[in-house]
Specification:
mainly alpha; 75% helix; elongated; DNA-binding transcription factor activity; transcription cis-regulatory region binding; DNA-binding; Tet_transcr_reg_TetR-rel_C_sf
Length: 235
């Protein structure tokens, strides 16, 4: 078997396993069924993965590789909160398009354990919330903000996979709710700080209203006003 053919067989086994998992999320699957789907014998599967757990771990790793490849292909908006919004939508889309991979990546739970491959996308998320915190855009710490986003994003995606269909209104509603909670805009009112947060996040969510450059300037200016109010300057 040539190297190219070997890689193709391995990939087809991974895809077959993912398809079987997607067909019955949360249930066990048969190694023989995986082999039958690809048209190979059991020794071939053992050659590539060693055992069932090896196959499962390889499917998880491949799923995260696919997920990170899709994320790296997307462009940043230049605004961390807007990038969180875009990242949420990309996460849900990936789960709905790849339910077999996703249910293993985020739905197969073992207490106290998370796959090593989860660390990279989690760090990307924390880097965005860290930037938002540095800009004074959060009312919670960046790690807590990242945890809020990840927990709700996974929950919504798994729910939609179980439903077997997209629900843009549900996803957007939960997304905006958690973003409002971590940025403080859920409490916006007459208070100057909360009003400032509300203006900033409204502009960041809709950069087409003012334009990209003007939106960035508004965020800077309102942020400075908030810092001045917080330090007591101008009183």
């Amino acid at each position: 078997m040539t190297e190219a053919a070997s890689l193709d067989t391995r990939t087809r086994l991974l895809n077959a396993a993912a398809d079987l998992i997607a067909a019955t999320p949360g249930e066990d699957f048969s190694l023989r069924a995986v082999c039958d789907a690809v048209g190979v014998k059991m020794p071939t599967l053992y050659h590539f993965f060693g055992n069932k757990q090896g196959l499962i771990e390889a499917v998880i790793e491949r799923g995260f590789d696919m997920y990170l490849s899709a994320k790296s292909a997307s462009e940043s908006s230049g605004d961390p909160i807007q990038d969180l919004r875009m990242g949420w939508d990309a996460h849900v889309s990936f789960g709905l398009e790849n339910p077999g991979f996703y249910t293993l990546m985020y739905g197969k739970v073992r207490p106290g354990y998370s796959p090593e491959a989860q660390s990279k996308p989690s760090e990307i998320l924390r880097s965005l919330t860290r930037r938002a915190e540095a800009q004074g855009r959060l009312v919670v710490g960046y790690e807590q903000a990242a945890a809020h986003i990840l927990a709700t994003n996974i929950g919504v995606t798994l729910r939609l996979i179980i439903q077997g269909r997209a629900d843009p209104d549900l996803s957007a509603g939960v997304r905006e709710g958690v973003l409002a909670a971590i940025t403080g805009t859920a409490q916006a009112g007459d208070d100057g700080q909360h009003l400032g947060h509300s203006v900033i996040e409204r502009a960041a969510a809709h950069p087409e209203i003012l334009g990209t450059t003007e939106t960035a300037l508004l965020i800077q200016w309102v942020g400075r006003l908030g810092e001045s109010e917080g330090s007591g300057q101008g009183q």
